[in-house]
Hints:
Blueprint: H1 7-13, H2 19-31, H3 40-49, H4 54-70, H5 72-75, H6 84-92, E1 93-98, E2 107-113, H7 123-140, E3 147-152, H8 158-161, H9 166-178, E4 184-190, H10 196-203, H11 209-212, E5 215-217, H12 244-257, H13 259-266, H14 282-286
Parallel strand pairs: 2-3, 3-4, 4-5
Antiparallel strand pairs: 1-2
Organism: Rhynchophorus ferrugineus (Red palm weevil)
GO molecular function, one term: phosphatidylinositol bisphosphate binding
Pfam family, one: CRAL_TRIO
Amino acid sequence: MDKCMDVAIFYEYDKNIKKIDVELLIKWCQQQRHFPNVTELQVILVLRSCYYRIESAKNCIENYFTIRTLCPDFFSSYDISNNSLLKQQMDVNFLSFLPGESKDGDDIVLTKLVDTNPEVYNPQVGAKLFDMAMMLHTYTKPPSNGTVLIIDMKGSVFMHITKINLSEFKKFLIYLQTAMPIRLKQIHFINVVPFMDKLLSILKPFINKEMFEKIIIHSNNDNLYKYISKDSMPAEYGGKAESIQILADRTKKTFVDNLDFYEYLENQLVDENKRIGSRKNVDNLFGSEGTFKKLEVD
């Protein structure tokens, strides 16, 4: 397994992280009887993602463990050799961190279809792959200012939209916005398709205003390079990074080599039998109409 970052690196990199705040949150986590063991690194990652706001961090930690426990389709069965859907989707959906940083000092992630056949596309499993990449990078790589996501729509057709299971995908969108311990700064769409407005109208009910304002749609791909250097892009885009195939193979190998890391995350579950107050389940957590009901924090 790639070694998780030493917490000392975070304290050195980001002087806004106060040891007293981290210790306060660790103590609070220990008082939550339904929580698994929460590490100092995890507390730091959440605190940074919440821009050092204690109460926001508490909610994020609660959301993180509860959603991951109640949504095993997204957050379990990481062994590619035993998960045919996961293995297939890695050949359908390219996803990789790119070298360098954005012009604001953010990490860069690129995703695109490499197999454009809608019949083999599964956006729910694609979301799972995104979380796998983000979590491993967040835990094992030096801290950065944040993350920008580039979504290349080339090869997408309307049939791809019909593969979205809204009742499931909304769960991941809620996790992304309320629980994932990252700073997602921007979401860039390039090679946009004529039905882009339909896609956004489908997803908009599940995207809060803050997240929606991070979406940047580029009618001209050259506009993307106002935000990142073209050199960071793969060779297929005229950049200086390695080819998509090489980057894809490296991502796959990273997933396989770090199965113990994913198994560790998979086993960090809440125990609803020990929760003080009403227990959480999919219905009362997400709501029958798809609206996210805020988790209570003691």
